[in-house]
Amino acid sequence: MMLLYIMISSGIGALCRNFVNEFFTKLYTNHFPVATLTVNVIGSLIIGFAAQYLNDDSFSYAIIAIGFCGGFTTFSTHFLEIYERYLLKSYKMMTIYIVSTVILSIGACYLGYHL
């Protein structure tokens, strides 16, 4: 039964990621991957909160951290976007994206953990 709930919450996370992606795609056209950065930072905040306040083996942790955050955040898209900037020889944007993702995601996780 737990697997079913994880699958459902993962699907909800993926739908939320899609909404964020559509929103930022319409808002920004400068080719900086704002949507992926946003979902990864928000996901880091949520998982930091879950790690601090929920037991690792709890039902709630599985639904939020494994399910929702697993569907919401996107490691593979992040690296595809980095590689695309590399192919375009957009090294400055690529570097800013890498550094901002790492710093903001760690900061958000820290913040979520200490709320």
TrEMBL record:
Keywords: Cell membrane, Ion channel, Ion transport, Membrane, Metal-binding, Sodium, Transmembrane, Transmembrane helix, Transport. One of its GO terms (biological process) is cellular detoxification of fluoride. Belongs to the fluoride channel Fluc/FEX (TC 1.A.43) family. The chain crosses the membrane at residues 32-53, 59-83, 95-113. It is found in: Cell membrane. One of its GO terms (molecular function) is metal ion binding. Its main location: membrane. Fluoride-specific ion channel. Important for reducing fluoride concentration in the cell, thus reducing its toxicity. It is a multi-pass membrane protein. It catalyses: fluoride(in) = fluoride(out). Na(+) binds at G70, T73. Na(+) is not transported, but it plays an essential structural role and its presence is essential for fluoride channel function. GO terms for cellular component: plasma membrane. InterPro entries: FluC (IPR003691). This is Fluoride-specific ion channel FluC. It holds the Pfam family CRCB.
